[in-house]
Amino acid sequence: MASVDTNQPDRSPVEVTDDLFRWKERDKEAAETVSRPSLSYWKDAWQRLRKNKLAMGGLIFLIFLTLMAIFGPIISPHDVNEQDLPNQYQPPSAEHWFGTDSAGRDVFTRTWYGARISLFVGLMAALIDVGIGIIYGGISGYKGGRTDSSMMRIVEILYGLPYLLIVILLLVVLGPSLATIIIALSVTGWVGMARIVRGQVLQIKNYEFVLASQSFGAKTFRIIRKNLLPNTMGPIIVSLTLTVPSAIFAEAFLSFIGLGIQAPHASWGVMTNDALGAILSGDWWVLFAPAFFISVTMFAFNVLGDGLQDALDPKLRK
Amino acid sequence: MLRYILKRLLIMLVTLWIIVTLTFVLMVSIPGSPFNSERATNEAVQANLEAHYNLDEPYHIQYMLYLKSIVTFDFGPSIKQPNQTVNDLLGRGFPVSFELGMVSIIFAVISGIVLGILAALKHNGMIDYLAMTFAVLGISIPNFVLATMLIQQLAVNVEIFPVATWDSPAHMILPVIALGTTPMAIIARLTRSTMLEVLTQDYIKMARAKGLSPWKIIVKHALRNALMPVVTIMGTLLAGILTGTFVIEEIFAIPGMGQYFVESINQRDYPVIMGTTVFYSAFLIVMLFLVDIAYGILDPRIKMNSKGGD
Prior knowledge:
The complex is a heterodimer.
Chain A: H1 28-32, H2 41-51, H3 53-75, H4 107-143, H5 145-160, H6 163-174, H7 178-204, H8 208-215, H9 220-256, H10 268-279, H11 285-312
Helix pairs in contact in A: 2-11, 3-4, 3-11, 4-5, 4-7, 4-9, 4-11, 5-7, 6-7, 7-9, 9-10, 9-11, 10-11
Chain B: H1 2-29, H2 43-53, H3 59-71, H4 86-121, H5 126-140, H6 143-157, H7 169-199, H8 202-209, H9 214-226, H10 228-232, H11 234-252, H12 257-266, H13 270-298
């Protein structure tokens, strides 16, 4: 490559002659060396996520919460529903780390038991939503035409149904339990996911690599599974992360109005409801544990979702 | 335009029909009749129920009569409260709930938009950072948790506000904050992101080049476009506020429909549950329809034909 010093300090005209140029040998070795390690999509996303302190804080908290949800009730010397009426409303102490509630139950143990319920309901409901949403949205987006528009009519109608009212109605009939809550939350919850997947598939299906698969005779399901889904994973994961906190909220909300996990079982919604009676007498710790952990858990999922959204967006790639 | 409205109207009617049918199917599928004598308080109520729901007729006749009673806005008698119909409860409770909901949504819209604009104008500055942290917190704290915390801090520890009930404007402050904070946070985030996008557009540069004052640019040029997405999520936010009134009214002992509804759930007062669900769903679906139409009218970029998906 030839090079000329263009930053001449004086503006006097210069005679351009051949001897001002010289051949630069092409360094074949240097052209082939990779200056930076090659990064797959996921590695790149992970590197960007790692720089986002808030999102990483959320991730670390969620790992901590998961571990405590598994081991918390085991390491605690008290049982979840062990009542000890003489010791009701004890402030936090060495014996009861988070104090005791109206029935003398250990708030520490109940908090982690509640974490189990919340995480389980949140993850299960979100996974079912993703599962149905991927299949429905994938078929609708890929098939297009009349199939798409009739499938989308159904989605449009379901989308108009008020989510929590339907869930309440279903739970009144099915009777509240862990399984029925998850079912009720998924009945209309998948609609949003189906819309996202469809939008993505509509965009990607016109790319050349899909045409290549088609011309090799790949079947619809193979194309959806091998070509389309891996390329829609980013938005799906983000949406999954943001669905979990809304499912956790819904479970706590339902438990709070008496349609969720039934007392004496512990759930953060049940515990907040129990705490209402204790507020007026100034026993703050009964409210503090469930209020703090439900808020921080939802906060953690929300910031992690936001962080993933930025990290997984290829447009923001540097 | 007319075609668009007709299409939305049709979808709205189908959705309403699904809700009504769903409540009917669920009602008849409750194990043991929801209206058997053990549940009813006395014989007079039992007789009223049987008369209203025509329980001795076959299902399809029952269904037609049920549809007819819904269309004529007659939701039948309550099981647990003798001599009370669901209409009585709605007539008493709904105005209170409506007031609470409306004040909350006005609070949420105004403060959310202001917060979003401030954050966008000071992009990446201190105000932006604080406002957005506040917004994520607002989205993360459930309304019933916020309500209990507010009572504890501002009504019990420091006695600034009344603990409960619904008598004076001062009584409204805590419930409105508890109910309005999450939608406010959602609006603030949305306003900020669309505002940031709009501010980079050419017509904003043009307005600046013309020498318009920053205030005029924001209000006349940027805000109008930045607020369109806020209109689209109004339906979802209304649904959130409406279901939020259930818990907020319960916590603050506000005599609205939400409180009756939660009570009826706990007492398994099926006619009240069904009636309220149908009424509230209809209310929301009609609201959603109006929001859609309003959006179509406000944004001239939307082509109002019935073809094409998103």
